[in-house]
What does this fold into?
Amino acid sequence: MLRLTDITLPLEHAEPALREAVLARLKLPAADLRGMTVAKRSYDARKRGHIQLIYSVDVDVANEAAVLKRVAAETRPNRVKVMPTPDTTYRFIAKPSPEQKLRPIVVGMGPCGLFAGLVLAQMGLRPIILERGKQVRERTVDTFGLWRKKVLNPESNVQYGEGGAGTFSDGKLYSQISDKRHLGRKVLDEFVKAGAPDEILYVSKPHIGTFRLVSMVEHMRATIESLGGEIRFSHRVEDLVIELDADGDRRVRGVALANGETIRADHVVMALGHSARDTFAMLHARGVYMEAKPFSIGFRIEHPQSVIDEARFGPQAGHPILGAADYKLVHHCRNGRSVYSFCMCPGGTVVAAASEPGRVVTNGMSQYSRNERNANAAIVVGITPEDYAEHDPSGSPLAGIALQRYWEEVAFKLGGGTYEAPGQRVGDFLAGQPSTTLGAVLPSYTPGVTPTDLAQALPKYAVDAIREALPAFGKQIKGFDMADAVLTGVETRTSSPLRLTRGEDGQSLNTRGLFPAGEGAGYAGGILSAGVDGIRAAEWVAEAMIRAGEAI
Ligand code: FAD
It folds into this structure.
């Protein structure tokens, strides 16, 4: 097969136009084109009213080698747009050995733990997955308990439970990670097997929305179990068993659970997510190497989706191929901070994403249809470990958590102490005056929004930066700084505030057999990259087991 990239056609092109473009690019008679499939479809909306579709297509042609040679000879080397289709087949690296003594453990069943567990199970290594939260259906009830009844379950919520943080989400499935081995394709293939629509394999910004994610996660659980894996819900890991080996190296020998049980294991994947603050503290107390890392804080902003559609797509807004419009914005401020949009959810809702009592955190989600009235995104400011010192001068790698907790508590109080979020009209925020009512844009956050002064909800440098950025964003997207757009806060869980640093073999720098992975370990951001990191963690575990003679 050959892959042709950068085939550009108008949004409204007739169906045969793609085939004709392929034939023209390859200068082929129609009879020599035996078949073709779309490998990727994206759009270029830079010119409003003249949106172009951009295709990559895999083609089956007669005399493939000769065609490739001829086209290559006709094309300047830096303009190559025809190449052999890359081989994206995933190949397992290990098989079980009768010498396997203990089963590998995966802590956490978010996208990272799910894929680590799946790939270990597919290799026959029979992992045990330990998840502190509940099965996804029960978890849904608890999550709605916060959203509808203002009751938070600290062990079963948006952050904790089967499927992890991404289950109640927009289900965006793209990432900017470098992925030479096409592990992202393995993630998408498994999602399709579990019930995701085929289109996630070729559209440039696939998304699946919340309801589908719930049933996909259940499907993947069943697959893992059918392959000999075991999944235990409501099993919180509270401690690590660490011993010194014959070389004097610290080595994991098992995990201790909140229910008092200890499970022996020589290989433990830690796929905790960014919200497991108690578990980070335990790892720190046990001397596992970690360091503070930068992350971002800010607010959610909501606009009518129609404002974003009109600004981005103009007269072509509403076209079914385009769907609800998204955006990606960045502004570098005079105070040296950068403000950017994050986790944009077209046609979605803002959700309560707290996992600790007495704290408020916002995030965003949507359904597959993305047809809610508002567009939402986080508007966040990058912060670094120097900013955390104010909240924890000790220099501890946990200092970022102290900052998060402080501002989440402030938000809880500003919201009225009932899990309502503090909110403000953009017009009032820019004018430096508190909001007493909200305007034409109705916020979607449940349990509710309390109009207030959000300048009190973040550090001054962040408030100043966001005040400078919003009008600048209004120049890129007409209406972005409209007075009635709504800000809610606070957005503090953009990524992990620390890194559980690992070496090239995937193991903790100072604790053998411990494989930190995914977003909480500081090695992923988003569902796809967490899934990819889970696959790599499974491979590192398998390699370690091969070295120990426990796998072949
Ligand atoms: P998590 O998904 O956080 O999973 C970690 C798991 O570990 C949790 O289930 C937790 O209960 C468990 N755990 C923690 N501590 C312990 C312990 N001590 N013992 C046992 N289990 C434990 N990303 C996207 O790419 N697209 C989106 O559209 C998107 N939308 C989002 C919307 C919301 C509301 C949220 C909250 C996040 C969203 N994200 C999105 C981010 C995405 O969900 C995360 O990047 C991703 O889930 C990280 O995967 P992970 O497996 O590393 O961690």
